[in-house]
Amino acid sequence: xxxxxxxxxxALGRVTLPAxxxxxxxxxPNLEDLPGQFEASLNKVGGTLVRVKGLAEIQQYLDxxxxxxxxxxxxxxxxxxxxxxxxxxxxLKDVDHTLVHGQLAVAENGAVLIKDCxxxxxxxxxxxxxxxxxxxxxxxxxxxxxxxxxxxxAPGHHAAFIAGPSKTADIEQALVIGAHxxxxxxxxxxx
Amino acid sequence: MALIGEIESHASAAEKFNKDxxxxxxxxxxxxxxxxxxxxxxxxxxxxxxxxxKQLGSEIKLHTLSNLANYLQEFEANCQKxxxxxxxxxDGKEHNEIIHGLLAKHQVKKLVKSKxxxxxxxxxxxxxxxxGIEVIDTDLGERIIQLRQEPPSHIVVPAIHLKKEEVGExxxxxxGSEKGASCPTYLTKQARYHLREHFLTADAGLxxxxxxxxxxxxxxxxxxxxxxxxxxxxxxxQIHSMGIDKIVPNLDAVGVLSRTLARxxxxxxxxxxxxxxxxPKAGGEMHVVMVDNGRTKLFQDELxxxxxxxxxxxxxxxxxxxxxxxxxxxxNALIPGPIGxxxxxGDDETHSMAWACTLCGSCTxxxxxxxxxxxxxxxxxxxxxxxxxxxxGKRRYMPLVGRLMGSEMxxxxxxxxxxxxxxxxxxxxxxxxxxxxxxxxxLPKAPKTGSFESWFRKxxxxx
Lengths: 191, 463
What we know:
The complex is a heterodimer.
Chain A: H1 4-13, H2 34-44, E1 48-52, H3 55-67, E2 72-74, E3 97-101, E4 104-106, E5 112-115, H4 124-127, E6 130-136, E7 140-141, H5 144-147, E8 157-162, E9 167-168, E10 176-177, E11 184-190
Chain B: E1 3-4, E2 7-8, H1 10-17, H2 21-45, H3 47-66, H4 68-81, E3 85-89, H5 92-105, E4 110-113, H6 117-121, H7 124-130, E5 134-137, H8 140-147, H9 164-175, H10 184-201, E6 204-207, E7 211-213, E8 218-223, H11 227-233, E9 237-243, E10 247-248, H12 251-266, E11 273-278, E12 285-291, H13 295-299, H14 302-305, H15 315-319, H16 321-326, H17 337-344, H18 362-366, H19 373-386, H20 392-406, H21 408-424, H22 427-430, H23 452-461
Parallel strand pairs in B: 3-12, 4-5, 4-6, 6-9, 7-10, 9-12
Antiparallel strand pairs in B: 1-2, 7-8, 8-11
Helix pairs in contact in B: 2-12, 3-12, 9-10, 17-19
């Protein structure tokens, strides 16, 4: 009996759709005030932008959360919380705040690219109650046309464009922030 | 109830939904709100750029479909390099067997699922439940309808047919939330706590696929809630089910389609999560199941194949005047609305689905990949007519209507009689001749003398 793989490929061999070339992506980006565009987009998707000059201000934010008695996990070099990355991913369930490194960010939609090489466990940016990312201003891209091809993801890895906190409007179209992923998203943009 | 082959026709099912006029208006408004948000999002990108994105989306999908065999093989080869196991399933049955085989091998007792219209199409949940596996749908809307034992009524907002009070009652009964609660924030938080326990105790996660990137050997999953990523990243075993139409060539294509998907669905600039899986987690396993289930058959027809340019944003449902006023459950098909008719009217034994459409073309206009939905729906009408399968009434009177309208003399003569009658007879006598059309509408007023044709001849033709 023919395998399903061969059966599908054979059926596709009989398909005669007119040849169509892959188009050239020729959309001109708007490069004006990318940080401003990013902030407007991030606000629209429910996130918060904090513009900082250096890591010290971010450390202060983490210290304040620690002082409040929260479980704070920093996955960014040079910044400290009060929680080490657990050996078992399920143990991250009671982490309140997680700080990660963002590879780049997208002005048009407020998304930050977070790779698993920066998060220890893949689930870290999803399971935490609150998520914060550190992004350098020179890694802002205008749209997904520029950002997605910069993905550069190694085989066997995972990455996510995360735009704001998790949300849903499945009950009568009422927007609720905090569905299954993080309930808030803060982006520290280093000028 | 008008049953055709023991299945209810669209018109009959819609008539029942239409009995509660207040609810119809509420449903209509909820969907139109989504359409409005979509318009604002498209405008914020800019009209010219938005139209360009639609054109690019259409060309990318057409290019992919016309080279699908190559791209499927490229995707498979690249997945293998990344440690992803790829499976091919010719139909829903084989898809379910493959999934069950994987779950059985890993002794999975509990599976957490995120939204996947494909697994609905394959009826995966009952298949697994019959075999002793607990299946938990984790998207909030999906969980609501799963607890109600209902199918989705919309492909993006599956519980759009329900009111918050109904959800409150359901959650009180099934997950122990407070009696009488109806605040969406409270109910969503209750679902968060309830489902968090399931994420932490699941043995496997299954998601749908928004895009499968051939050049990368990776799948892209888009959600707002983060449920797909909780499900894929906590248990060791992750499975992704996809129709073979979900392939895109490369990351450029992801860039284009990720710009239109959420904007056209809900008016958001992006879904909260656009996540890319290019291999299993350390110590885990990742499987992708690619399913045909009738797709290659529709690809044989050049026009019908275009239905698979669809990226499942649901925009055509939100704008459709028939869907908004008849709801997803009237269609006798898993995927309702214009795209549902386009992909499933071939299997519609009631021969009524392709008529659940006014051919207004609004769906085609809003589609982010330019699927010619109205043309496809019109094409299905011809297919059903040619097979001699029109409903009895239509089969009898449509040829007569055709003959009447094809003859100028007969058409003008009968219109003259109609105008005369409308001038002298009361509406109550005339309205029944309009059939269902005049049930909720008034008749137009006939001109006092003459006709449009005579007015045109006198005023325009000689000039």
